Amino acid sequence: MLLIVRGRAEIDPEKCVNCGLCAKVCPYHAIIYVPAPCEDACPVGAIRKEEDGKQKIDYEKCIYCARCLQACPFGAILEKSQLIEVIRSLKSPSQKTVALIAPAIAGQFSADFEQIVSALRKLGFDYIVEVAAGADIYAKKEAKEFIERMEKADKLMTSSCCPSHLELVKKHIPELSPYVSSTRTPMHYAAELARAQYPEAKIVFVGLCERSEAIPETASTSNEASQ
Q1: How far apart are CA 87 and CA 67, in angstroms?
Q2: Span 15-52, pLDDT tens digits
Q3: Looking at CB atoms within 10 Å, which of 50, 76, 163, 213 has the fewest?
């Protein structure tokens, strides 16, 4: 796959298959692999460089895990934001707003959980509902479903807790589909609790999950959910 041009070795792009073997065996390190952080971070090979040198996401493969978003040093990959709608709700004197807070946010700040809750209230949130309460409901429902499936002699049952996992099964491991739990996510059940307690309030999810497609799971139980 190499050509000698004016006494120098050059790669023939028409024959190269980008296997990387030449870079590994070159004793002079003359061939260098320059990875794209987003492409390296993708666990399902959904990002590839086009002929124009630009990275492109293949949505037929993408599971919306947001690892590319986190890896990109240029901020070129962005999640659709509902921040403006959240700010409008917080500033509206007539609109009550609920914060659904995931337990994982406690590890993101040098403050205890009570201080984080206090900060959210100062931002303008009227009510706080912990997603952990929804996780308790989720665990009970999934445990019940697991027992029922085992009694029917099912081979196994996988969790339905993460929407990205569901996309992974749907697009890459379809043979696993019959074994995925039908239980909804902890955020879904937390939103149900919030809607029952505060029927007129807007509901905002506050957590680390970047998976925006998880948000519609609360749509049936809340007027609006946002990250």
Answers
A1: 26
A2: 888 788 888 888 888 888 777 899 999 999 999 888 78
A3: 50
Whether 135 and 41 map to the same domain: the answer is: no
- Based on the structure, what is the number of domains in the chain? 2
| Domain edge (last residue) among 52, 71, 90 | 71
Length of the chain: 227
List C-alpha distances in Å: 147 to 121, 141, 150, 155, 158: 41, 10, 5, 12, 13
pLDDT tens-digit map of 152-198: 999 999 988 888 999 999 999 999 999 999 999 999 999 999 999 99
DSSP letter for each residue of 143-157: HHHHHHHHHTT-S--
The boundaries of the domain holding residue 218 are 79-227
Residues 200 and 163 in one domain: yes
